[in-house]
Request: fold
Amino acid sequence: MSLSIKKPSNSGNFSSWQIMLYVILLASLIVAYLPVLKNLFSVWMDSDEYSHGFFIIPISMYMVWRQRESIGKIEPMTSWTGLFALFATLFIYLLSSLIRITTISSVTLPLCIAAIILFLYGTKMLRAVFFPVFFLLLMIPVPEQIYSAVTIQLQLLVSKLSVEIASTGGIPIYREGNIIHLPNRTLQVVQACSGIRSLITLLTLCLVIGYFGFKSNILRAVIAIGAIPIAVLVNIFRVLLMIVVFHYLQFDLTEDPIHTYLGLLVFALSLGMAWCLFKGLSLCEK
Amino acid sequence: MRKVNNKKLFLTIAILIAVSFIIFRIPENIQTIEKKYPLRNYLDKVPGFQNGGDIPLDASIIEELKLDDYVFRRYKNGETTVTLYIGYYYSIQKVGAAHDPLVCFPGQGWELTNRQTEELQWQTERFYSLPYASMTGKIGQNYELIAYWFQSYDQTSSSTLSQKLMLLKNTIMHLGSDNAFCRVTVSMKNSSDKNVVKIAEDFIKNVYPLFLDYVMNGRQK
Reply:
């Protein structure tokens, strides 16, 4: 008696022709989305808030690569829903490009990738690579209206809480909106000091730490959400430090380059806090 | 990774190539028009208001906003000053160039309150209906009523999203694709000065027919 194991017909090495097809697929996706990619590249280069965008695609690819063994075992299944989703996504892409809604055009890129995966490989594969594909959304700038609305609220929150703490500590101080009045100085918590930049970067980092560090989706969500209060707290600390140092030492921390170094130091502090949160949550997973 | 049916790969590639073809042809088919007259000449005289002089815009701002034409001028009604700004664009390609005041005003230190959307309707030779947004702006001890709308050829809307959807419809139907951002500001004595609302509305009722005439008729291809 002999045993023979029948290999699945679609396993084994790819022929050079099939590899060429995949390369052409990737190239055609890049060409179709070239205006979006050029715009994103330009934003990452010019903007302090989104310079982390350069790292999003490589991190996403690394996330997929880490799963290569389990992904390799998934049997491709045709999903006509995927084809429909592909048409729908590309239709929205064309319309939004016509009327220059760049956010929607950009958002269709990860959606298009998801639709292609769904069409070619089926729902099991899409489920396996769901997080790496939707992680790509983090490379897309937040729409200006939303960005501005969030920034204004952060400016006011940071101004309000830092003034309340300083006042409780006995410092003569009052606030008008985001303008802080000290006896010999007026400070303004402008957009750049709202903490939005560190919030965006910290949120991205916490998502990555959570993805690689935890198996539980709940813990991943907790560390990601935890980025928000951490970013706000360290920014309150920064503004409070400026108030206290100016009041007691007559030293102005708003002048460059001290202001820049302080920003870096405070960001390092936020990273430390995120790391402590990660370590604390790791105990829950054990 | 397991291999996929080659036909599906071919189909996906074909779809993406078709999209590439369309996406790179979009700018070629956008209608661009040239105006006969500078907009500021067309709005030189507004009934009921005296021309209080142009406010110059820096060349860097004109470039930043990608303006094809503009008017930035004060008009006087007794002791009240009304400031009109219209940033005009000849084609849909520049529709994202103007920013919603909700985005740019706070960044310049303005505190915005009382935001609402209204619709102004009036009848002269024809019926006019103008949806617009308004709010009270405060900077230092100064208050201003800020009323603004987005023009999509012969239609107005109070938001950029509506403007873009209207322009999409116009483009598909081969109607005009020129567009503008229009803003009327009136200085207020205090935060609850209600007279300025009537002055702003009177100004809009007088300037808008002139502006609409410019949009519809002051053009050549």
Summary: The beta strands of chain B are 34-35, 50-54, 69-77, 80-89, 111-123, 127-139, 142-152, 155-157, 179-188, 219-220. Chain B has a mean pLDDT of 85. The radius of gyration of chain B is 21 Å. The interface with chain A takes residues 1-6, 8-13, 15-17, 19-20, 22-23, 26, 92-96, 99-100, 102-103, 106-107, 109, 111, 160-161, 164-165, 167-168, 171 of chain B (CB under 8 Å).
